[in-house]
User: Fold these one by one.
Assistant:
Number 1:
Amino acid sequence: MNVLGIETSCDETSVALLSDGIIKANLIASQHFHVKYGGVVPELSSRAHLQMVTPLVKQALQIAEINVNELDVISATAGPGLIGALLVGLTFGKGLAFSLSKKFIPVNHIEGHIYSGFLMNDKPEFPYLCLAVSGGHTLLLLVEDEMTIRKLGTTIDDAAGEAFDKVAKMLGLGYPGGPNIQKYSEKGNADAIKFPVAQLKTPYDFSFSGLKTSVLRYIQNNYEDIKNIPDADLPDIAASFQKTVSDSLIKSVKKALKQYKINSISLVGGVAANKYIRDSLAGIAEKHKKKFVVPDIEFCGDNGAMIAYRAMQLFKNGKNFGLNYNAYPSLKGDEFI
């Protein structure tokens, strides 16, 4: 079965082709021009997707050596994400499916990330805990099988990835924040500054708004010119912040490990590319003798392969969608959005 996956939820245009579950092509065009604006500009993102989606589809078919008529399923991200950006991939996918009389399957973006661990040779074993961490979402999930996902916790305010971007901006490290925070943290002392980990009444939820405020207050209290922090101090601040985010995530995972019987732990989403968080969670998995699966860096960020794989799962489990579907809600309603 040949499945085409299209991902245009934010600032990456990605097209992938899976043949019987094997990745034949996974192309990603990143919109680096957003750096000068300090964040993603939705209108510019949509226009860039319009320019890239057709050439990428043609290139993917060529690399995979598959004729467009040999496609069995065409899929595209249907949300959540930037509305204008989503519409580009969604309408392109629908139009292609209609013209070829092929099945079209809209995919929930978060579910794509949740099952991205299955793109690897070493796959998660059901049931497993999934920590999905990105710029827009922070979720702790119990994944029981291909069609059953239970949400245990989510952020009550800001996502972890957003916190990385905002703190990087405070420190003058630029956008995107995640890679820059990690780079500076490598030379810093993670225990130099004690930033607070939010204490919530709900056992598995997260909060990062207060952490951002704590970093801002630290900067204001220790530097006369908050826009010109000495370079020598940046590594310690970045490392201490990064450790606090990691500690917050791991705290909820530890609680879940005590309550649920699971076989694996999986870390997915853009923030899964952070080495410190990956290593910290791997240590917890090893301590509890659980299999730890994290996607390759290529599959941590937004990519078409995860969309195609999730579409294949849905198709095999008998999910049918018509072209009138403008969005695909998660298996539990809209709780991931």
Number 2:
Amino acid sequence: MEPIKIMPCLDMKNGRVVKGVHFVNIKEAGDPVENAAFYQVEGADELAMLDIAATLENRKTRLEWVKKVSAVLSIPLTVGGGISSIEDIEMVLGAGANKVSMNSAAVKNPDLVRQAAKKYGSDKITVAIDAKRNAAMPSGFELVVSGGTLPIAKDAVAWAKQCQELGAGVILPTSMDGDGTKAGYDIPFTKAISSVVTLPVVASGGAGKLEDFYEAVVEGGASVLLAASVFHFRMLKIQDVKDYLRGKGLTVA
């Protein structure tokens, strides 16, 4: 098994890092460049930066944010939000991102995932999958797009499998039921995804305590652990999480 990686996430709005609960009730959480530099020193293995309002505001990712944040990093940076074409991917990678994350645009045009993977390599293409519980879906999880505002009657787990077939290199599932709650990752959702793909799965949404990170790996099958609130508000240090996981016998990057 690959070593477990820790990935803080900068949710961006109006040039600042923010954090919400269930994708709403947004709170300010600092400057993106300062946060990025801090997390790298703290021992982050990768960093995610998501422009959470881009799709809703029908605009592209702000490239100046990507340039400023990537300039202070030597760890890989995944950038998402408003990426809807090969040209967008080209610009975001050109601005310093190592990987791009697509969500709504991939759902709308699955061939974009195939084209992007073919052109840039699967390792640069992450597909983010937002979902909420819906018993009417075969897996029990319904795909939600447009920044978590629009359920589309499509099975989220079947979509993850399709993304792997299209050439995606990483799947980043976020449970809207858990996002920002600090009540723990949605293990059944993470497990449902990791059991149908062979790609790295990023656990996302709801980390609140050390045990949550361990459960995401052992029960959820995740190999990358993304968290925002617990790091932004300094409830946990990255090194604490890594030491805890090592103490539990896991191999950590």
Number 3:
Amino acid sequence: MGAMTLLAALLDGALDEPEAIRVGDTTMSGPELLGAAAVVADQIAERPDEGPVAVLAEPTAQTVVAMVGGLLAGAPVVPVPPDTGPGERGHVLADSGASLWIGERPPEITLPVRKVDLTRRSGDVAREAPHDGPALVLYTSGTTGPPKGVLLSRAAMAAGLDGLADAWEWTPGDTLAHGLPLFHVHGLVLGVFGALRVGSHLVHVGRPRPEAYAAAVRDHGASLLFGVPTVWSRVAADPDAAAVLRSARLLVSGSAPLPVPVFEKMRELTGQAPIERYGMSETMITVSVRADGERRPGWVGVPVAGFETRLASTDEETEGELLPHDGETIGELQVRGPGLFSGYLGRPEATAATWTDDGWFRTGDAAVIDAGGYHRIVGRRSVDLIKTGGYRVGAGEIETALLEHGGISEAAVVGEPDDDLGQRIVAHVVVSGAAVDPDEIIAFVAERLSVHKRPREVRVVDALPRNAMGKVQKARL
């Protein structure tokens, strides 16, 4: 594969207004960003080893400059979450073979360190390196073992972003605003590289508070807003902030399922239903509701341009057989297209295990697809597809029903071993007011879904364990 320019609009001279890029309280134009990033690229080129570059991915302008500098230099960039503990940070650095650290130095870091100076400029003409090896190494946790490094090329990121620009009618006339972490696909690739590719202005609000999103719309004309369900839940609980979002063009939710009550409240308060989409570190965003498409709560839309999907059986007797798109049959979602990862760093066996013999990526997610091509994600095959009493039940469907109960604010459903049923359905719930009766909740679900889908046990908890992107960590339940 030849060279691929990812940051096309930025390198073509777009975003030349003085405040085109705003990260927290820092503003810069596209040329200023490029000039500062070229200094970082020069520093990367001077490192003694060829290994990847680790960037402390704080939500700052320095991080954006460092990420762009890595692309200019052609060095794989490893975004390191700022809240990662020493043990996991040590694994990421050792596994990636990082040769340089960019950002503030944690005490245990022994790599050469560079800090980003936003006032410095390079005399070299800023352009992306001419090869298309791995551009990002994103570390993603599975259900077992330490995090694996996902290798993403510029070509893959460009393909995914172009599909989204088409689906969301994303143009240079937009201003993108969000407060997402800069160490995930959502916040970094979509939320930074996307704007720099399309040429839309960018506002990173820092902490994703409802008032910060409202200020981005009111003060900076934000038209396209990205958030995770936790963000939109907080916005839905703040009617004044939500009302300001009425002038935004598109509200996008991802990284975890958006609870139906939040979807409905957002539609009521902002005048528009959020757009939901689906993807993962290995695939970019492969499925999304289109800007001009139907917005159904709990459904994540259709494949974006260039991508295909299918459902495959995971039953032992029929494993791999293709399943009907009837809106009911649950199977493993498999995808293919130009935006997929190049593999797991240093793990050829793990990489090979994720692909079918005919070239489709196994997402590990359970889903249904209806006759019109709309997708609903049931959850992870490993934890969200529950086999109970001979039935296959999706945890997400039960969670949606639980959240319709007025006394429940959060819910997570898992299957636990059961001598009689194989697995019994257990619901963990956070209550929003007075105490709830577990038996009444069980009956509540049974009235809305099939009786075999009711929880056999309800546990009230103070909070659900979540990661930085708001996904419930069911293994900890």
Number 4:
Amino acid sequence: MDFDLFVIGGGSAGVRCARIAAGHGARVGVAESRFWGGTCVNIGCVPKKFLVMAAEYGANAEDARGFGWDAAPGAHDWQALIAAKDKEIGRLNGIYRRLLENAGAKIFDARARLIDAHTLDVGGARVTAEKIVIATGGHPTGLEIPGAEHAIISDDAFYLPEMPKRVAIIGSGYIAVEFAGVFAGLGAETHLIYRQPLPLRGFDIDLREGLAEALAANGVVLHPDTVPTAIAQTETGKRLSLSDTTCVEVDLVFFATGRAANTKGLGLDEAGVKLGEKGEVLVGPDFATSVPNIYALGDVTDRLNLTPVATAEGHALADTLFGNKARGVSLATVPTAVFSIPPIATVGLTEEDAARERRVRVFVTRFTPMRHQLTGRVRKTLMKLVVDEATDKVLGAHMLGEDAPEIMQGLAVAMIAGATKADFDRTIGIHPTAAEEFVTLRTQTRVAGPGIGPV
């Protein structure tokens, strides 16, 4: 064999797996046909957070007046922002390449596809490998409605030549609510169209309700229980027709309606790799596919599509195969954040999920952050703990508000260690902070459980 391990995909999962395996002494090849670092670095979480930060600066300038500063937001230069973003992404691309080169992996700037279980076509050349990893990630999908060709997807949003003045975003997941905050914060008339009663399906109900209020307070026009039916090009922009018989006139229509695994054209059928109903690669707990020597990691498996999960999976597989240290990755208590404005962060079970099989005590607090007592901005922070009534173990922690992702990272450590509500209660808070509210929650809001249900 030419390689002990060949990795298809140079994103978070693929690069980590290739780098660690090479560090263990394996002969490693890795192919990437688009850009090193994958979705997250190039057209995902990293550039998205830069855009969110840019949107927040305008509000910060307005808020400064509450503290005595003679400040006001001026005109925003979209092209300058995109240029600065592109420069930083280019730097990160170089880091990913150097990490692989320094580890001793052989880099192929080419598309790779399987010929059989041990043979690949890599940019027209044939190579063989004892073990193969599929880490090709996913791609955004749109809707099949009349005029869909007039809409963009999230990949396109990072390269818009100019900032649109009127935007319609279709969807209400991570990408939709984050870009709603970006465009509204940069001054665009922003519409959010979604078929559910509340945004962020699958998140805790209190967070969903709180986010809907926050989006509206930030000027986002919400269209719940609504789906788009057609898009038409007009002389002045786009006309988006909705299921409630109304129309929205905008400059940009943005599909944020889901993602699909990148499995087409990889030769997976020829190699015997089984796929799921949505085209995702099916894997077991050891990341193995239906072919014993072929593995899959990250978003291409469509299990829990988060960059840190993909990175952890890549590291675990490399240690297992070449580091003499077999281990997996638990997806049971994975913290996550939504960089909406304000952001959301969560770890563990929602109230609804926790209450299906047990009685739980629920603690909720809502308050105006200290900063906005002076700015006058209408913004609430929401914090919530879901606690097992029988064991006192904290099953879920949820927050909507400024600094929520930074705060939740620490709570995730406590929850993975099995912290109880009593552990939270006997922890001294840091004052004055928002975070201290998590350790001063004493008044129970409600009880939920079988026969009671979440309220």
